[in-house]
Write a structure and sequence with these properties.
This protein is α/β, with parallel strands linked by helices and about 550 residues long. It has four domains: about 180 residues, FAD/NAD(P)-binding domain, CATH 3.50.50.60; about 120 residues, FAD/NAD(P)-binding domain (3-Layer(bba) Sandwich); about 110 residues, FAD/NAD(P)-binding domain, CATH 3.50.50.60; about 80 residues, Rhodanese-like domain (Oxidized Rhodanese, domain 1, 3-Layer(aba) Sandwich), CATH 3.40.250.10. It has 16 helices and 34 strands. The strands form nine sheets. Strands 5-2-1-9-21 form a five-stranded parallel beta sheet. It has a five-stranded parallel beta sheet with strand order 11-18-12-13-14, covered by helices on one side. The chain has a five-stranded antiparallel beta sheet with strand order 24-25-28-27-26, with helices on both faces. A hairpin with a 5-residue loop joins strand 27 and strand 28. The relative contact order is 0.10.
Length: about 550
């Protein structure tokens, strides 16, 4: 059996190694048009920022190493330009010599990946970059070392854009992010993104949200960026990070069936519409595990799994891909942001009737030193309590909690069943009631009517009503240092003594710092005959959202000319 693989990195390299482990006699050839057969794609921004110092650390496997360990022929700087599916041959060009030849196959695996989107406004110039390959990384780092830029603009607020902005800022380069949407990091909702944006602002990164780029021009040693509102930014360098699209040139040529965004359609076995041709990685359309809708999810984890599944099926082991749920984690300076499943915006778009839990908990026992806060947002179906997704923003232990919830989703646990998980506990690592357990407790309380919630988006309308009381149950000192408009202050510990100050004819909407004291207050009030609601997320979340809304409406002088 002869297997030809087009493209290395996560999907292609994984498939090759797995085939060899299953079949010692198979002939395996990988064609990779770049100079690197298997590299740490996700580590590229950190090499630019100097966090990863050794260029060799980015290379996970060399062609020589692949052949020595796996007896796999890995040919870099070789591009497959066409496929003859009828005669099972691929057309190859050696990019160094220009030589062209054909290679036969019994099974063909396509792992071409994705390519950066170049917007209509883009003009090629030596100071504007995309980041996708090791070559891109080396080019950007060399530019920074040689040209010593003082300013940079990152266009796009997704994973690559934010990681690049962080690393540029850490190098002392004054960095601006231009984002078309109303918040950074589209995988999270705008409320959770407020913490992300605050972190960037704190570290000196300027944010231009709701800003569309319309023009680009190069003038001397500057790049000029023209925005839709007429503003112009003059900068020393630009990083384009507006997204990627599946690389489908070969798929089109051979007539493979394509799906959304031009991605290659595959079945559960990763088979394409043409016999003996498989596809994996960022180029393929998959089923979203939550919505069961078609999706393109460009992440390393799914690509590795798909490579293994293809190898299994080629070697006679029945293996199926059950879908992606988009679990991800990103470092933003000292902060960690993690997600799994779908967010609230996606839940609305998909027509789900859902509830949400937002709470803030410590990363470990509060009495043990250096506990840090994390805010957890869980979204689940109202009737079935099926978990739709989660977002966590914090510092220590965020990755652990998102992985627990991701596992719970895959196992089919309901939101209230998170309370039953028997999680490891010791004061340096967690609390006896882990944040994941706490989310389950709140979900159970919502199910049983023990607590009713309200949210940030409700506050403006509540302030205009005469039939409600807005109550802040924090201490007078906390209240003095900042509170939501319209809220009166009765500390939780004084509530029973002062409960007669409240009007039972009115609904009571209660807030505290994190949501715990206000929950306790609603329990007191409800058992005294009041109709009480708890603010999800607490004043910590409220103030973060409010501050970001105010700052997002300001105009920043980052070299802009009106």
């Amino acid at each position: 059996m002869k297997v030809v693989i087009v493209g290395g990195v996560a999907g292609g390299a994984t498939a090759a190694a797995r085939i060899r482990r299953l079949n010692e006699n198979a002939e395996i050839i990988i064609f990779e048009r770049s100079g690197y057969i298997s590299y740490a794609n996700c580590g590229l921004p950190y090499y630019i920022g100097g966090v990863i110092e050794d260029e060799q650390a980015l290379t996970l496997q060399t062609p020589e190493g692949f052949f020595q360990r796996f007896a796999i022929k890995a040919k870099v700087y070789h591009e497959v330009t066409d496929i003859d599916a009828k005669n099972k041959r691929v057309y190859v060009t050696d990019l160094k010599t220009g030589k062209r030849y054909t290679e036969s196959y019994d099974k063909l695996i396509l792992s071409p990946g994705a390519k950066p989107i170049l917007p209509d406004f883009y003009i090629e110039n030596e100071r504007t970059f995309t980041l996708r390959t090791v070559e891109d990384t080396l080019k950007i780092r060399a530019f920074i070392e040689q040209k010593q830029p003082k300013t940079a603009v990152v266009i796009g607020g997704g994973f690559i854009g934010l990681e690049m902005a962080e690393n540029l800022a850490e190098l002392g380069i004054k960095t601006t992010i231009v984002q078309r949407d109303d918040h950074l990091l589209p995988t999270v909702d705008i409320d959770m993104a407020s913490f992300v944006q605050a972190s960037f602002r704190y570290h000196g990164v300027q944010l231009l949200l709701n800003s569309s780029t319309e023009k680009m021009s190069a003038k001397g040693n500057k790049v000029l960026i023209g925005l839709a509102d007429g503003q112009q930014i003059s900068t020393d360098m630009v990083v384009l990070a507006v997204g990627v699209i599946p690389e489908n040139n070969l798929a089109k040529k051979v007539g493979l069936e394509l799906g959304i965004k031009g991605a290659i359609k595959v079945n559960e076995k990763m088979e394409t519409s043409v016999a003996d041709i498989y596809a994996v990685g960022d180029a393929v359309q998959v089923k979203h595990f939550i919505t069961e809708q078609s999706a393109v999810i460009s992440l390393a984890g799914p690509a590795n799994k798909q490579g293994r599944i293809v190898a299994d099926n080629i070697c006679g082991i029945n293996s199926e891909y059950t879908g992606s749920q988009g679990s991800s984690v990103i470092k933003i300076f000292d902060m960690t942001v993690a997600t799994t499943g779908i967010n609230e915006q996606q839940a609305k778009a998909s027509g789900y009737e859902y509830e949400k839990v937002i709470l803030t908990q410590n990363s470990h026992a509060g009495y043990y030193p250096h506990a840090t806060a994390m805010t957890v947002k869980l979204i689940f179906e109202r009737k079935t309590l099926s978990i739709l997704g989660a977002q966590i923003v914090g510092y220590d232990g965020v990755d652990k909690r998102i992985d627990v919830i991701a596992t719970a989703i895959r196992a089919g646990l309901k939101a209230d069943q998170l309370k039953d998980l028997d999680l490891a506990y010791a004061p340096p690592y967690s609390s006896a009631k882990d944040p994941v357990n706490m989310v389950g407790f709140v979900a159970e309380n919502i199910k049983n009517g023990v607590v009713k919630q309200f949210y940030y988006e409700d506050i403006l309308s509540l302030c205009e009503r005469k039939d409600v009381v807005l109550l802040d149950t924090r201490t007078p000192l906390e209240y003095m240092y900042g509170h939501a408009d319209g809220f009166i202050n009765i500390p939780l510990d004084d509530l029973r003594m002062r409960i007669n100050e409240l009007d039972k004819a009115k609904k009571i909407y209660v807030m505290c710092q994190s949501g715990l004291r206000s929950y306790l207050a609603t329990r007191i009030l409800m058992q005294h005959g009041f109709d009480a609601y708890n603010f999800a997320g607490g004043f910590r979340l409220y103030s973060s959202i409010k501050n970001e809304k105010l700052l997002s409406n300001q105009c920043y002088s980052c070299g802009m000319e009106k």
